[in-house]
Write a structure and sequence with these properties.
This protein has twelve helices and 17 strands. It is of the alpha/beta class. The chain folds into two domains: 145 residues, no CATH class; 262 residues, Vaccinia Virus protein VP39 (Rossmann fold), CATH 3.40.50.150. The longest helix is centred in the C-terminal third of the chain and has 22 residues. It starts with a helix and ends with a strand.
Length: 436
């Protein structure tokens, strides 16, 4: 039971307008702290919740100091939302690698709060437009209840977010650690393009992971060659775990400091099966890997990644080439096209198209079904072409495609192309980084 004097001072007064500034009023905006039993502290919190929901002054709830049985649960936030015309209290359970949202009718909100405080959370902060209330439950049964001036002066509209469920939620903790989002899970303005790129990449992966060679697999091994800071490496790992797949994902990056930073974030958030290593694409071994990713590997590094994957027979290959430099100096415009390709910018773009076209044909010649398409709109990045190879059941070399490649090279005066050279000569021996 709540003591009578507490009922008068801490509960009844809450319903009075904030303009009441009498010294003994709870709206005097002076810090006030009391100690009581844990049960009394919970009762005071529930009374404050009920009053703030009744007069529409509730802004949000924040639960912390978790010591319960779930090692991945970090904290819980709650706010009022409107779903199908009825108000609910929406609880967001923030875990190490994902968020879970549970909505309960407003009249059941108190019970839900009591359950959370009974199941491991020792701290609750209630934010209203009239005051803030902090309740800290003690291990010895003594609670500390503090009231202070309000952090917020207006309650948000209880509008439910009807946006389609995101494949990668902005509240994912690795996004925060990589600098994409802030502490509230909001995408930073300067990182908006990067987040769109991450979302688009996972949208592309969704049907690819449902291909016959990968469909129904409960474990997948992914090798990300040239992973940089690991934005997409983390995204793939998070996505696969969300689908109930046990992933083994490894990012290879030439800069040791980026590989070390990726490992630190993965360990911080208990991402078992996710790791990073310092190395070059030439150091990688794709043997036994299910998916090879090489996004924005510069110039012929894309060819190195493709060759490694093709020689290992990897079922799914995903590349986003950039910096097409090898063919441009070799390109000799045919007589029919000289008037067009005499312009440097057009010749450069033609070289890019021929480079990626030959790569697609080489995939097809060596047992893959190739697709080339726009990765993301050009206003977000100029490196927006994606090349995908899916292993065919019939992997016999295709002489007709090899003939096309030879004809194209002859037509444009191309002497050498890196991927073709590697597929003709690579032996696959030497010291290689293996996916563990």
């Amino acid at each position: 039971m709540v003591r009578p004097e507490w009922t008068t001072e801490w509960t009844t007064e809450w319903t009075r307008p904030p303009v009441d500034t009498r010294p003994d009023s709870c709206y005097a905006h002076r810090m006030s702290t009391k100690h009581c039993s844990n049960e009394e502290g919970i009762a005071v919190a529930l009374a404050a919740l009920a009053a703030s929901m009744h007069d529409a002054s509730l802004v949000k709830l924040s639960f912390g100091a978790y010591g319960g049985a779930d090692p991945t649960l970090q904290n819980v936030y709650a706010r009022i939302v409107t779903i199908k015309g009825a108000q609910h209290l929406s609880f967001t359970y923030r875990h190490a690698t994902k968020d879970i949202v549970k909505n309960v009718p407003l009249e059941q909100g108190g019970d839900a709060v009591r359950t959370l405080l009974s199941d491991g959370f020792r701290a609750l902060h209630i934010f209203t437009t009239g005051f803030d209330l902090a309740v800290r439950l003690g291990a010895k049964g003594i609670a500390r209840v503090s009231r202070s001036k309000p952090t917020f002066t207006a309650a948000p509209a209880p509008v439910h977010d009807h946006a389609k469920p995101r494949l990668i939620p902005p509240t994912a903790p690795w996004l925060r650690d990589l600098g994409v989002t802030d502490d509230q899970g909001r995408v930073k303005e300067r990182m908006a393009d990067k987040f769109r790129q991450i979302e688009r990449f996972i949208e592309i992966l969704t049907p690819l992971f449902d291909a016959p060679a990968l469909r129904g697999r409960r474990e997948l091994r992914v090798l990300d060659m040239g992973c940089g800071k690991g934005y997409l490496t983390f995204a793939v790992y998070d996505y696969l775990r969300g689908k109930g797949v046990t992933p083994q994902v490894r990012g290879i990056e030439a800069r040791a400091e980026l590989a070390d930073a990726g490992n630190a974030i993965a360990q911080r958030h208990a991402c078992a099966g996710l790791s990073f290593a310092q190395g070059q694409i030439n150091d990688c071994d794709a043997t036994g890997v299910d998916v090879v990713i090489a996004l924005h590997a510069c110039d012929t590094a894309t060819d190195d990644a493709l060759a490694k994957a093709i020689r290992a027979g990897v079922p799914l290959i995903i590349c986003a080439p950039c910096c097409h430099k090898q063919l441009r100096p070799q390109l000799t415009p045919p007589a029919l096209l000289r008037g067009i390709l005499r312009h440097g910018i057009l010749c450069e773009r033609e070289a890019e198209l021929i480079t990626d076209g030959l790569r697609a044909l080489l995939l097809e010649a060596h047992g893959y079904a190739a697709k080339v398409f726009e990765f993301i709109a050009s206003e977000h990045t100029q490196k927006n072409l994606m090349l995908v190879g899916e292993k065919r059941a019939d992997t016999a070399p295709r002489a007709d495609v090899l003939r096309q490649i030879a004809d194209i090279k002859e037509f444009f005066g191309i002497r050498t192309q890196r991927l073709e050279e590697l597929l003709n000569s690579m032996r696959g021996d030497g010291h290689l980084l293996r996916l563990k």
